[in-house]
Write a structure and sequence with these properties.
It is built from 13 helices and 19 strands. It is α+β, with helices and mostly antiparallel strands. It binds flavin-adenine dinucleotide.
Amino acid sequence: MKKCLIIGGGAAGLMCAAKLAKSELPDLQITIIEQKDNIGYKLLASGNGRCNLTNILPCREFCEYGFAKSQARFVRNAIYDFSPAEQLNFFAEHGVEASLVDGFHYFPKSQKSVDILNIFREIISKNNIQILYNQQLKSIITENNLIKSVVLDNQVLECDFLIISCGGESYPLTGSNGKIFPILQQLGISLIDRVPALVGLQTANEAITALAGNVLLNASVYIASEPKLIDRGELLFTRTGVSGPAILDLSGRVNRVLHEGADKLEIVINLNCDYDRDFWHKFFADKRKNFGKKSVRNLLHEFFFLNLVDWLLAENNINFERKISELTKKEELNLVESLTNLKLEIIGNDGFKKAIATAGGVDLNEVDSKTLAAKKFNNLFFAGEVLDIDGRCGGYNLTWAFASGAKVATEIRKLCK
Ligand SMILES: Cc1cc2nc3c(=O)[nH]c(=O)nc-3n(C[C@H](O)[C@H](O)[C@H](O)COP(=O)(O)OP(=O)(O)OC[C@H]3O[C@@H](n4cnc5c(N)ncnc54)[C@H](O)[C@@H]3O)c2cc1C
């Protein structure tokens, strides 16, 4: 009997166990080791308890749009082998249909992530997969280039295959607390420093925090020093800075730059990315000609919430009563610059506690992307967020977790035959 140990009962580990169970290898004993008192805490929390499983993009676009370039190359094999469409079929075959919510994102029809977790619970119980709860992996014992056994809280278990699917460091209360990383480092596996990703950003500009709670529906944002990486979408003002989809997708990169030594950096925001400088200058020219008595404040209020308009006027030293006919050319230039190129200094982020993902983790150079096996140890595999993979918002991270778990199962199946 061969022994397969899966460390971590999150999306990646559970899919790996399920796929292995489905392959009905008579001589394989599967055990999940989970340090929490239950499996799938993060899966349950995902998508606000609704679980954005994946989206409509076909594999190629899914990888290219969802991940940074080097990550896209790495995730390709696993995603093509267990595509977003195949994943939805898998859930449907197990009784959970998905629905397309806004023409792009798939959620379970019930809008309940627990339905996805229940699929795994059922597969686990029907296939006699063992789960050891409240057991933390403490260290890994090797011989030459093989993993021999693992040390848990109060026992040592031998293994033929070891899968590390311990997640990253975000939302540590769900179990992914990062304690796995020093253990991997001891094995000689190189790591990329972890920073929070998909997380709100903090600014030193206290005035802007007065806008907390308000949303821009159609903003675009980029890092001042990296103008090619533009994100678009909703931007939410918070008590510490900015958040919302447009910011979250950029946050991993921002935090990486800050982590590498910058004590602050500037992001540049277009408050409505449908409107560029030309639009606003034409707009002001037209209003000046036809509605000269209207106040700048009221005109801008047609586009933005009043707090923001007042803040913009104050920043540019423009009196709230100023009529459009009285706006000087210099004031107009400054205002248009604020509307289309608002610069905001970022000094930090809301931390791992609130981050949806972790950027960094096991260095992708340590792992064969075709098998997800470690290059240094023949029987060691990685799946999910523990690797240096962080996708955008929109179902990319769960899809990766499921695809990588399935990929590892495929490889172990091959080795067992
Ligand atoms: C609030 C929130 C909402 C999200 N929403 C979405 C969404 O809607 N769509 C989407 O695609 N992605 C979403 N994500 C991201 C997605 O949930 C994760 O990327 C994914 O669940 C990662 O799966 P994983 O199996 O790699 O890790 P995890 O789910 O973190 O599982 C790791 C498991 O390993 C266990 N573990 C860790 N260390 C040890 C150890 N030493 N010994 C034993 N066990 C250990 C942990 O307890 C945990 O159960 C969300 C994340 C968060 C935090």
